[in-house]
Structure formats: structure tokens, C-alpha cells
Amino acid sequence: MVGNRGRDTAPEMAVRRAAHRLGLRYRVGARPIANVRRTADMVFPKQRVAIYIDGCFWHGCPSHYVAPKTNSDYWSTKITDNTQRDRDTDKRLAEEGWLGLRFWEHEDPEVAARTIRRVVRERSALPRPSSPSVP
């Protein structure tokens, strides 16, 4: 697992390139919530949108995930833990006023980028939450 990329995977790069062609600018590999040690693949801080490109194997894609025959107990636990962490991340983002968007690695990058652009534009039109005043 050490050799597996944590960022800049081919599917992630394809979505980033497509989004960039549509005029979107974003942060890469950033933490949407500073005190939570989880990074998003793409972050739009002003609009509070975090994008995740999930690998079919690592995140248990219902269409493409095939459980390994070797060491199946380990891998079953690993994938279950990953999906539970994904749900927890989505919940934490929502609690902080963020929107987390998830795309599978097999999805068309152009379609994903257009969805991202639509959501970012919609959230740009919303009033930003006010920060608490300091006495």
C-alpha cells in the first residue's frame, strides 16, 4: 500500500484538467476543515465545496469492487473502514457548512467537471455564512 498514490492519480488529474478547462480554480490536496486530518482532492474554499475522486477498489464501488481472494478478512475490514470514514467525512463537512461531492474513478471526467462547475456556481450565488464576532 505504500506505493499507492494519495493524490495526483490519473482519474483525479483527468477531473482536475477538465475542471480547469471550464475555468474553475481550486486548491489541491487541502483540508476543508482545518482541525480534521482528512484532505479533499479539490477544494473550493469560498464556496465551501470539497471534491473527492474515489477509487473503485479502495472505496468499495458497488459496480466494480471485487473482493480479493487472498487475505479477504483484512481487505474486507479495510474497505469497510474506508467507506465508514467517507460517510463520517461527509457528515462532518455538512456540519461545518461544506458540501462534499464524490465521484467514482470510472465516471466521465467531463461530466464530473460540469457537475462541479454547476455546484460551485450555485454556491457562489449563496450568501456566505457570517463569522462570529469577537468581543
Can you describe what's shown?
- The chain is an alpha+beta fold and 135 residues long.
- Helix content is 39%, strand content 16%.
- It has 3 helices and 4 strands, in the order αβββαβα.
- It has helices at 10-21, 72-95, 109-125; strands spanning 27-30, 40-44, 49-54, 99-104.
- The protein has a 4-stranded mixed β-sheet, with helices on both faces.
- Strand 2 and strand 3 form a beta hairpin.
- Helix 1 packs across helix 3 (109-125).
- The radius of gyration is 16 Å and the shape is globular.
- The N and C termini lie far apart (49 Å).
- 20% of the residues are buried.
List the defining traits of the structure above.
135 residues, alpha+beta
Structure class: alpha+beta
| Secondary structure tally: strands | 4
From the spread of the alpha carbons, the general shape counts as: globular
Q: Terminal Cα separation, in Å? A: 49 Å
Strand order of the largest sheet: 1-2-3-4
Give the integer mean of the pLDDT values.
91
- Beta-strand fraction estimate: 15-25%
* Oligomer kind: single chain
- Order of H and E elements: HEEEHEH
Instruction: Give the count of helical stretches.
Output: 3
From the alpha carbons, calculate the radius of gyration and give it in angstroms.
16 Å
